[in-house]
């Protein structure tokens, strides 16, 4: 294994990409399964490629180098009363902006205004030919050229190395309140997800802990509005209001996946609320899980070494579930759901990385 | 135009492939498809095929691939950048009859639709469940979801809710290679590279969307719509800055200037505060308790903003009247001038005032009138350039002014298009935004989807690859004989 390269500037990143026949960019290492690659692949660390390039609060946008830690950005935005509404994951653990974008994971706040894909505006990246390219834009609205910035969301570094990213941000809500609602089983959770999803309250986050039999609903609004909204929700489902510090700890634990098995496997699933019961029912006894974004995201955590569940009787070695899934941590397949692959996907890979410098999507 | 024997034979093969009556060839039939919303340009296609099923679309695209015939997908033809302008020697594939809402699932809050479904029809179908489809281009009563997807269309609510792309969860498409693909799905979450996101906004250059999964949002319980008149555009711009700085996140922030107001008054008898050189529309939305708290803050800001008058919509009818005036502005300008071009550029919001001042100066220099209607919340300008197409150089001067405005947008750090796409009209300005390497990268991606350059060729990319100069004389497409003027 060659020494890790640590570029400091976008130009150095381009040099680093060109310096070896097989490379992969790695950020904070908080989602190690995504950056696992064959032994001949040289890792390019982005941790020194950091800093805010541009931040103009009145524009609701910022641009930062890809290795900038998410927690630094969260703090910078916070000073100006702004935030990334999708609650980027693993902020305390050291996730970088580029790694967060490339892994395509969003936290509980994605429920209201959308996930990371809905806030990325532009990227600067090095393609497989070693060229430094900027696509998308730096303003909140732009329709020129194909939307490669969105394409990079979830692309796990297989199509290019991110150098710089531009995001849209929002003003932070004046106040929040978190309710813990009883949901004794997954069917009860789905019922709450469905009803709350189209209710008038405009919840900010709606997660569930299958292990606890609880749904957590977060309101974000001017303080005077919170009492009435909370009261109405609690008149519909039994539950309690969390104290502010308990709520802060809860959401920070969700963002850090503190509920998961330490050192174990962590897999994200794209679900619909009605699939939640089947998802939860498929958990082996050792598993822990979390359901996010009103039943649209499921996380499964297994202790290290535990076998991946089949979720039903698997036939001919194929997983019996049809939910798209990706592994963040642990020693299981990167794409456990065996997603459909189309010819055009290979063609796009060749377009952006003709020499196959970055690993393939399915490597 | 006379058809060559080989084209005639090709069209006979195409006709044989489809049910009777689907291939239109008569000049009178083709005339309706010669232009899109950018009416200054027209091209007669070889034929127009009127398709009704996904299988027919797939078969037609594969036919085009095998016979190397360029094709242009067409929804309602309202593109303002020449996106659905036919290609000489090619066919137009109309999708209006693929207009079924295949599935509406109020529990998951999604609609699965065919591409010819009208934007507003989605909201109409969702309304009984208290849901709506957020993207609301002013053309929403006629434009199709297929067109919205191809252009990543916007509307008045983009700052808070994003563009079409932010509401497309998945899609099925036939690519120009003939491959049928399915990206994304019913979940709001994505896994793996965002292929859906890459497809949206492709301007018809990848293939044809056959089925689109849209997310629906709950309709806001309450709206608070305010219209404020100002003596100067700058004051209106300053009010926007103050609203943004306050930490409010309105659903919409729109501005219309004096000429746009005049047009709206003439066309739909809209009423505006007297002596206003600009009108600002701000709309808050949400649960009633939230709107009640937010409106106190908004009212305070507007009270201090030097407005001539601040009108609050007291009910749904008054709110609709405010929006009617705004949404009719484009077509209303037709009352003031025989011809006009709707431009679409973006500048950083803090530079809106400066941008408008410069647009004013440039239009005075050009001797043309220019009305401004814009999405002030996201810096998206829509200068409406008035000209007379009967004057020999009318269109050329108007296009030259439009070009200057676009260059100014790029110089200020913005974009040549916020929502109308590059199409034919702005393709020569793509190099102002992107380097040669970046354009090469975009072209490579296009080639992955369409190696034969058959899907909507001649759009988005500059034709020669050389950076565009100001358009002197004929439009390059006219010189090439690809298009001609009415
Ligand atoms: C009065 C007026 C107001 C407007 N206001 C707005 C506005 O506020 N915001 C905004 O964003 N736009 C606006 N527009 C522009 C226009 O309405 C949008 O671009 C719209 O999305 C086009 O839809 P359409 O069905 O007319 O598409 P068309 O014009 O028929 O086609 C547009 C493009 O999409 C491609 N296409 C169509 N269907 C498909 C498909 N199924 N698969 C692949 N490609 C396809 C075409 O090839 C073409 O390139 C306005 C236009 C007018 C005339």
Can you walk through the features of this model?
The complex is a heterodimer of chains A (363) and B (486). Chain A is α+β, with helices and mostly antiparallel strands. Chain A contains 10 helices and 17 strands. In chain A, strand 6 and strand 7 form a beta hairpin. The longest helix of chain A has 14 residues. Chain A is globular. The model of chain A has no long low-confidence stretch (mean pLDDT 95). Chain B folds into 3 domains: 92 residues, Uridine Diphospho-n-acetylenolpyruvylglucosamine Reductase, domain 2, CATH 3.30.43.10; 118 residues, Uridine Diphospho-n-acetylenolpyruvylglucosamine Reductase, domain 3 (2-Layer Sandwich); 190 residues, FAD-linked oxidase, cap domain/gating helix (Vanillyl-alcohol Oxidase, Chain A, domain 3, 3-Layer(aba) Sandwich), CATH 3.40.462. In chain B, strands 12, 13, 14, 15, 16, 17, 18 and 19 form an 8-stranded antiparallel beta sheet that branches. The chains are: A alpha+beta (363), B alpha+beta (486). Chains A and B meet through strand 7, helix 5, strand 9, helix 7 and strand 14 of A and helix 6, helix 7, helix 8, helix 10 and helix 16 of B. The complex binds flavin-adenine dinucleotide. Flavin-adenine dinucleotide binds next to strand 3, helix 5, strand 10 and helix 12 of chain B.
């Amino acid at each position: 294994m060659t020494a890790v390269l640590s570029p400091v500037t976008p130009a150095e990143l381009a040099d680093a990409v060109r310096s070896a026949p097989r490379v992969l960019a790695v950020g904070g290492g908080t989602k190690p399964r995504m950056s696992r690659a064959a032994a001949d692949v040289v890792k390019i660390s982005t941790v020194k490629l950091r800093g805010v390039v541009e931040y103009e609060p009145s524009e609701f946008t910022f641009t930062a180098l890809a290795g900038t830690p998410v927690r630094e950005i969260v703090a910078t935005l916070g000073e100006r009363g702004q935030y990334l509404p999708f609650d980027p994951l693993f902020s305390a653990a050291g996730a970088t902006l580029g790694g967060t974008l490339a892994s395509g994971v969003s936290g509980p706040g994605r429920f209201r205004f959308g996930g990371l894909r809905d806030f990325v505006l532009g990227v600067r990246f090095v393609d497989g030919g070693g060229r430094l390219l900027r696509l998308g834009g730096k303003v909140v609205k732009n329709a020129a050229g194909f939307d490669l910035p969105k394409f990079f969301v979830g692309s796990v570094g297989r199509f290019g190395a991110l150098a710089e990213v531009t995001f849209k941000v929002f003003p932070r809500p004046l106040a929040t309140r978190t309710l813990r609602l009883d949901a004794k089983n997954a069917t009860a959770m789905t019922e709450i997800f469905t009803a709350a999803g189209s209710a008038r309250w405009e919840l900010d986050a709606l997660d569930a802990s299958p292990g606890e039999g609880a749904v957590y609903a977060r309101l974000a609004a001017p303080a005077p509005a919170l009492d009435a909204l909370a009261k109405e929700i609690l008149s519909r489902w039994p539950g309690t209001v969390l104290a502010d510090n308990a709520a802060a700890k809860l959401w920070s634990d969700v963002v850090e996946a503190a509920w998961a098995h330490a050192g174990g496997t962590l897999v994200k699933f794209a679900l619909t609320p009605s699939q939640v019961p089947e998802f939860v029912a498929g958990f082996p006894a050792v598993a822990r899980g979390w359901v996010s974004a009103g039943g649209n995201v499921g996380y499964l955590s297994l202790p290290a070494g535990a076998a991946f569940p089949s979720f039903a009787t698997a036939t001919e070695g194929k997983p019996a579930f049809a939910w798209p899934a990706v592994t963040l941590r642990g020693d299981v397949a990167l794409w456990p759901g065996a997603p459909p692959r189309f010819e055009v996907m290979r063609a796009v890979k060749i377009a952006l990385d003709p020499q196959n410098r970055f690993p393939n999507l399915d490597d | 135009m006379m058809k060559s024997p080989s084209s005639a034979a090709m069209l006979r093969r195409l006709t044989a492939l489809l049910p009777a009556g689907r291939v239109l060839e008569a000049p009178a039939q083709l005339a309706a498809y010669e232009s899109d919303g950018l009416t200054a340009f027209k091209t007669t296609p070889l034929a127009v095929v009127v398709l009704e099923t996904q299988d027919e679309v797939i078969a037609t695209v594969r036919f085009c691939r095998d016979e190397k015939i360029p094709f242009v997908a067409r929804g309602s033809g309202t593109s303002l950048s020449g996106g659905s302008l036919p290609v000489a020697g090619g066919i137009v594939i109309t999708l209006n009859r693929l207009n079924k809402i295949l599935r509406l699932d109020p529990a998951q809050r999604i609609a699965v639709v065919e591409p010819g479904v009208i934007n507003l029809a989605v909201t109409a179908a969702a309304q009984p469940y208290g849901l709506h489809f957020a993207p609301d281009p002013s053309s929403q009563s006629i434009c199709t979801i297929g067109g919205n997807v191809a252009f990543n269309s916007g509307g008045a609510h983009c700052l808070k809710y994003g563009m079409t792309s932010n509401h497309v969860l998945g899609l099925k498409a036939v690519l120009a290679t003939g491959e049928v693909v399915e990206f994304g799905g019913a979940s709001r979450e994505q896994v793996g590279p965002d292929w859906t996101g890459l497809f949206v906004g492709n301007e018809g250059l990848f293939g044809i969307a056959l089925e689109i999964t849209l997310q629906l949002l709950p309709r806001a319980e309450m709206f608070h719509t305010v219209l404020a008149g100002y003596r100067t555009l700058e004051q209106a711009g300053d009010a926007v800055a103050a609203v943004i700085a306050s930490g409010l996140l309105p659903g919409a922030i729109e501005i219309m200037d004096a000429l746009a107001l005049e047009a709206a008054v003439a066309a739909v008898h809209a009423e505006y505060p007297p002596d206003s050189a600009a009108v600002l529309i701000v709309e808050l939305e949400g649960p009633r308790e939230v709107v009640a708290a937010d409106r106190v803050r908004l009212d305070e800001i507007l009270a201090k903003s030097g407005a001539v008058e601040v009108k609050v919509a007291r009910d749904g009818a008054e709110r609709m009247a405010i929006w009617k005036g705004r949404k009719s502005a484009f077509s209303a300008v037709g009352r003031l001038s025989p011809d006009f071009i709707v431009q679409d550029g973006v500048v950083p919001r803090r530079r809106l005032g400066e941008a408008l001042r410069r647009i004013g100066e440039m239009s005075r220099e050009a001797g043309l009138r220019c009305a401004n209607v814009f999405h002030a919340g996201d810096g998206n300008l829509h200068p409406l350039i008035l000209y007379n197409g009967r004057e020999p150089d009318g269109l050329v001067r108007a296009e030259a002014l439009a070009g200057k405005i676009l260059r100014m947008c790029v110089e200020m750090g913005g974009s040549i298009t916020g929502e109308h796409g590059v199409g034919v009209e702005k393709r020569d300005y793509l190099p102002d935004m992107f380097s040669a390497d970046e354009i090469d990268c975009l072209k490579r991606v296009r080639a992955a989807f369409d190696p034969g350059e058959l899907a909507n060729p001649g759009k988005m990319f500059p034709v020669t690859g050389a950076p565009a100069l100001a358009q002197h004389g004929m439009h390059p497409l006219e010189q090439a004989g690809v298009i001609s003027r009415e």
